[in-house]
Amino acid sequence: MTDVKTSAPTAEELRARLADNLVAAGATTTPTVEAAVRATPREAFVPDNVDLVDAYTDDVVVTKRGPNGRATSSVSAPWLSLSTLTVLRCPRMVLSAQQRSGPDRLTLGDVATCGDRRGCFSGTV
Fold it and tell me: Is the CB of residue 45 less than 8 Å from the CB of residue 114?
């Protein structure tokens, strides 16, 4: 009998799976948004103690809890980030004043407070 070793999926595999699921669910509305999802390393925006598989589920990732155990900070679920992109329908977004200034600069403030959403937004510029 031969032992078959299964290895844990890589971040790239998980990212592709998440993107495929979001496309299948209709959450990505344009090829640009889909490409941004496929390119954004969600694991870079969650705490180090979050399992890679958990980082790539289409759900919120709690990053901080208060003394009562309730979530006080989180990384948004990918579907929510994508719905924000869809609602804004901005063809050009720049998130940082250091990057650019002028009439086509959009400051998202609280809309883009978490890193993975910023990553997706920056992918749509």
Answer: yes
Strands 71-75 and 61-65: antiparallel
Residue whose C-alpha is closest to residue 111's, from 87, 92, 125, 97: 87
Helix axes 78-88, 11-24, angle to 10 degrees: 50
Would you state the structure tokens that stand for residue 118, as one six-digit string?
A: 């910023």
Handedness of CA 57, 29, 87, 27 (dihedral sign): negative
Query: How far apart, in whole angstroms, are the C-alpha atoms of residue 81 and residue 114?
Result: 10
Q: C-alpha distances in angstroms, 100 versus 13, 88, 95, 111, 125? A: 34, 19, 9, 19, 12
Task: Give φ, ψ of 57 to 5 degrees.
Answer: -80, 155
Over residues 24-80, the pLDDT tens digits come to 998 887 888 888 888 888 888 888 899 999 999 999 999 889 999 999 988 888 888
Element (H, E) at 118: helix 115-123
